[in-house]
Design a protein that fits this description.
Blueprint (H helix, E strand, L loop, with lengths): L6 H10 L8 E4 L6 H12 L4 E6 H10 L1 H10 L3 E4 L3 H15 L4 E4 L5 H6 L2 E5 L6 H5 L2 E3 L4 H41 L11 H7 L4 H5 L9 H6 L3 H5 L7 H24 L5 H23 L5 H20 L6 H4 L2 H28 L3 H6 L1
Parallel strand pairs: 1-2, 2-3, 4-5, 5-6
Amino acid sequence: MLTGDKMETAICIATSAKLVSKDHTVHCFPEVSDRHQVHEKLNDFRRKSDCALVITGTSLEVCLSHYEGEFIELACQCPAVICCRCSPTQKARVVELLKKYTRKPTCAIGDGGNDVSMIQAADAGIGIVGKEGKQASLAADFSITQFKHIGRLLVWHGRNSYKRSASLGQFVMHRGLIISVMQAIFSTVFYFVSIALYEGFLMVGYATVYTMFPVFSLVLDVDVSADTALMYPELYKDLSKSRSLSFKTFFMWILISIYQGGVIMYGALLLFDEEFIHIVAITFTSLILTELLMVALTIRTWHKLMILAELASLGIYIASLAVLREYFDASFLKTWAFVWRVVVITLVSCLPLYILKYLRRKYAPPSYSKLQK
């Protein structure tokens, strides 16, 4: 807690905000003026445990001048640190030092003009619109009207932002990689011939009207309700482990894309029925159905717009089959040979992933799914 208030006022505010609990001992760092005094007082404080530190801006400046790293290390071990009588420059410096020595993202919260430098120095700045004006809220990344809204901003909106960004980003990557794998296999099988597997409107439609709405409907997905997220803030701790967006999930999506692209392409080649236009119809239909089923697999809580996006995309594709006669053989699309080939390829592509998801939720469920039960 970095503030320009007096020590007594700062301690009262920290206690009322539950930054300092009743079980904590409050240690007021004495005034120091030289290197020897700083060394002595830091050693004295090092012997104490589970103690909240209160230090003035003058003593803070002397400590940072001589023992910058040691002071930040001790401060990070404390349950709470209160720096009173701080200047705006000191607030920004403390934030920069925390970023430097802990190598963790920082968040700064302020409500006045003297907090602007601190807010801008942090990775995420939150400004509160209050009696001191709107300088802090205008300079911040996020603006709220009351301090109590911070909890909802972090554990609900922050959670949704992280989860949705992770799902959307990785799925967009999957959507592009799977068709690239199919093109690579097609070119390899046909002796690296420079012919595109899909041409014209098929490529444009794949990235837009056929898959765009379901993929971007993932921004409406939620894993827990707002009440549950606020009631169990421990769920927020899982986000700090970066399990939804990491190298592990990145390579998992790459393997899924390679597997599905290989299944669709090699499956169609095994079931290839003489004419090239047939392989285009089989693979492209299986590809669209695979993408729609993968979106359904990724969704944790269905929203009515998600259902509408899935049905609309499927309806648009079925309707386009009758129009795009230059890409598809209309007579072949009406046969059972086309239907059973597409069904088999799509099942082999998606069914194993659905089984793995079921087994994972049964034997190693995530923390939020336990609360839903």
